[in-house]
Amino acid sequence: MSSIGIGIIIGIVILLLLVIVVGYIISIYNSLVRLKHNIDKSWSNIDVLLKQRTDELTKLLASVKGYMEHEKGVLLQVTQARTAFLDANSVKEKAAADSSMTSALKSLFAVAENYPDLKANESFLQFQNRISAIEDQIADRREFYNDSTNTFNIRIEQIPYVFIANMLHYVKSELFKVDEADRKDVEITF
I want to staple 88 with a disulfide (CB 3.0 to 4.6 A). Which of 10, 78, 82, 93 is the partner? Predict the structure, then answer.
């Protein structure tokens, strides 16, 4: 073989290795972008459900007001939680507002136990069931969000992903956490 033939073979091998390395880097980049977008998508799914729950609260409060005239504190708590959610902009603010809303709803449903007429009211039951169903969906979406976030957070710390993640300025995403107040049982007094 001539030196030109060896040079061509070496050039082809180098070019092939370069294509493989570039392909691998592109694969890592695309994987990180996909994970980042999964977090955004999963948060958007939660956000949609939180908005639906907030919209349902207006109807629920309207059906409850007539029965619970002297329970203004509970109604005020739900209304304030709803307002806090509507005013929230970031994921962290919305998560805090969601926590307040969950706590307020627990209190509202616990107090509703004191009103047999309200518990028998078809509108109240319908809204209560609808909100309970939305709460279940929110819990499922939180789990998916946290799975997506955890996968992303692990990936951006693994070699070789960490190098690409640093170039993209990717930082760990925050998990959706339960507020300490939500871990406590609601007190029901009769």
Answer: 93
Neighbouring residues of 76: CB distance < 8 A, sequence distance ≥ 6: none
The answer on pLDDT for 65 being more than 80 is: no
Q: How many domains does the chain have?
A: 1
Cis peptide before 116 (omega within 30 of 0): no
How far apart are alpha carbons 144 and 43 in whole angstroms?
9
- Percentage helix, strand, coil for the chain under 3-state DSSP, each rounded to 5: 80, 0, 20
CB atoms within 10 A of CB 80: 14
Task: For residue 190, tell me if it sits in a domain.
Answer: no
What is the percentage of the chain residues whose pLDDT exceeds 90?
34
Is there a domain that residue 57 lies in? yes
CATH number of the domain that residue 175 is part of: 1.20.1440.20
Instruction: Supply φ then ψ for residue 177, to 5 degrees.
Output: -110, 150
At residue 190, the pLDDT reads: 34
The DSSP result for 81-111, as a single string, is HHHHHHH--SHHHHHHHHHHHHHHHHHHHHH
Instruction: Give the structural domain span for 100.
Output: 3-183
Q: Please check whether residue 26 lies inside any domain of the structure.
A: yes
Q: CA 60 to CA 47: how far, in whole Å? A: 20
Q: Which residues contact 81 (CB under 8 A, 6 or more apart)?
A: 97, 100, 101, 103, 104
Q: Copy the structure tokens of residue 101.
A: 């809303």
pTM of the model: 0.68
